[in-house]
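Researcher: I need the complex structure. Ligand is fe (iii) ion. Inputs:
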Amino acid sequence: MAHIVGSISTSHVPAIGGAIARNLQQDPYWKPFFDGYPAARDWLEQARPDVVVIIHNDHGLNFFLDKMPTFSVGTAAEYETADEGWGIPALTPAQGEQDLSWHMVESLVGDDFDITTCQEAQIDHAVSLPLALLWPEHNARGGQWPVKIVPVCINTVQAPYPSAARCYRLGQAIRKAVESWDSDARVLIIGSGGLSHQLDGERAGFINKEFDLTFMDSLVDAPEWVTQYTNEQLIEQTGTQGIELLMWVVARGAMPDSVSKVHANYHIPISNTATGLLVLESA
Ligand code: DHB
Ligand code: FE
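Model: Output:
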């Protein structure tokens, strides 16, 4: 059966795509952010995943306000990268792991999660940038990412959003699905979103370092800590787009109860966002 090698949760900010395109990794503004990733890449070298289940939110690229699935799973053979309006270059398309996609859809619906299946989907910065940060040498059109993907999309664009408690349970169901997939593949879970940020309104630019760091710590030893909060309370604590932290909650749910922390980084701000990185493996 397939095996989950660990999880990497990371923020995504479109401007990272521009910084990569312009080779700004050593620039003083960007360095503390990019310096977080070599340790994650070192760990990946020994974890050697074949497949990534990437938990992300869409930003108006695949779903708009007229049709908004709460949870969806991509089942496509290939996912083109696209830019929903930030001016960042398209990256290499990602290949889908269709056998796992369909197995996950069966398993998740069997576990009472109402999944929208997407036989066609594009991927925005929430999917392409974590791949580019973790496998930078493959960041060129025409090349191939060294992993196949299954994108799992959680609505954080149009209220109502799924609760943190439900997202945690979705993560647990994803673990059950992956571990019952008849394959010897090594599977990495990526959670892409957050941490605290608010892009518009009176609190535009809002960041809550204390909450972010408490949340990151909780994911190691007390993963259900965050489920005490309603989404309104989470938005109050982390900003309107800070609710993207739900991706980290799903990713943590997909890991075993007991994990060890391999690596973490936290840097504020990149653009309007508090950026975090957390690498976990089974204890
Ligand atoms: C920013 C952050 C995001 O998560 C996003 O999706 C778009 C923009 C930002 O801070 O600029
Ligand atoms: Fe975002």
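Model: Summary of the prediction. The longest strand covers residues 259-270.
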